[in-house]
Structures are given as structure tokens and as C-alpha cells.
Amino acid sequence: MSTKLVFSDIDGTLLTNDHVVGYLTCHEIKRIISAGIPFIPVSARMPEAIKNIMNDIPVESPIVSYNGALIQDESGKIISSSPMSVDTAVDICNYVEKNMPSTTWNVYSGHEWFSQKSNDRSKVDLEESIVKVKSIDSTISDIKNLNIVHKLLLMGSVEEITYQEEKLKKIFPQLSISKSSPAFMEIMSKGVGKDFAVKFLAEHYKVAIEDTMAFGDNFNDLEMLRAVGIGYVMENAPEKMKEEIHNIAPSNNDDGIGQILQKIK
């Protein structure tokens, strides 16, 4: 195997627990890019939130946002877009407001983030501080006027998100619904996923899937790690992940990606 494309999850993988990229990892990412090997972040985050991270390294790279619902090349040109129905997004927002009182809905459309107008903005404020992007206070009427929706993010209590996950899957079987953390639920079109993104980009760059590498730390990374030539799960990942993926990288706080990339010559 000769590694020609490298993919990486962001939170808990590329970023340390302090939400920065380690020195060694930055150095090695720049080195492999200089050697002609693209390093591609793959995340549920919106494009601007990913760009902020890559600008800090700093490098230009393709970007996979919304878990593959939006893919851009190095220049920012959209090369794949897999939106969901706006009407369906409105139905979910209505469901949340009626049945999930502890949950805040968030709708992502291209480069914009619309968050539910609420007296309690604590969850949204925290997310804004982490991703360094401001959301737009919105109502369901605002969502109805959108032309495109790439993702919904539901931020709630662990109990409410856990209780409602299976219900939402039954009500909206045409969607991909999964938790990205115990209190966060990500909703996108069915068929969209990180595995789709790596296969699409491997074909786009005319690279055999056997010559690709990926890093991840949680269950929403599992199919991506299985899809590539060699997948690494971070040491800080849940034990069940490490049982599934036997290549273990050092933790996100120990420049795990950087240490593995050093092996690419």
C-alpha cells in the first residue's frame, strides 16, 4: 500500500481536548501535502467551522462537511451536494418544538447556520464558541423560506436525545439519523455518510481505495474507517471502536495523527 489520500475526523481526532491541532500533527500534515498527498478533514461540522481549523495549520485542502452532504475541493468549489427536503426539515423542527422541550434545533444550509430562537441559548452559545462561527436566530417560518438544507443538529439532554432517537428514525425512515455525542443528534439525507465521502473523493482524485488512510474516534467514523485502505482509531476512542478497528493511533492529545503520518515517506 502507498498512501495517496488521508482523511480525518475532527473532534476527538484531529483536535485535542483543548480544540487545537498539535504541533507535530500540524507539521506532518504540511509535510505530506507538500509531498502531494491531500489531507482531507471529514466532519459533521459546517464548512466555515472546518476552514477555521485548516487555516490555523495553515493549509488549503478539500473539505467534507455535514458528514459528506457537502464536499468542496481545495479552491472551495462544490463538487458534491446531497441536500435533504426543506419540507422534511420543517417537519422535524415542528416535531422538536412540540415533543422535545429540552432540545434546540439547528438547520444548516450551505454556508449558513440557523438556530432556534429561544430564551435558553446556552447550548448554541457553547457550540459557537467551539466552532468559531455565529448562528442566525431563526423561527420555523425562516426555515420554510430556505432553498436547500444539508443537515439538522438537535442539541438536547442526554435522556431526551436517547429517548427520541428511535422514534425519529421510525417517523423519518428516509433520513440518516445518528448521535455524534450523547446529547447531539445529526440528521441528513439517507445514503450520506463519511464512507460515501471517502469513496467519492478517491474516485475524484483517481486514487485506488486501497491507497487511502483515515483516522477517527467514534461510531460515526466506523464506516469511513472500514471503507479506506487502512483505518486508524484513536487511543481515546470507546473500547468497542477499538475492538472493531484494530489499528490504534495514539490519542488526540498526544499528536496521534502526527505520529502515524511520520511513517509516510
From TrEMBL:
GO terms for molecular function: magnesium ion binding; phosphatase activity. Gene3D superfamilies: 3.30.1240.10, HAD superfamily/HAD-like. It comes from the Bacteria. GO terms for cellular component: cytosol. This is Hydrolase. It comes from Floricoccus tropicus.
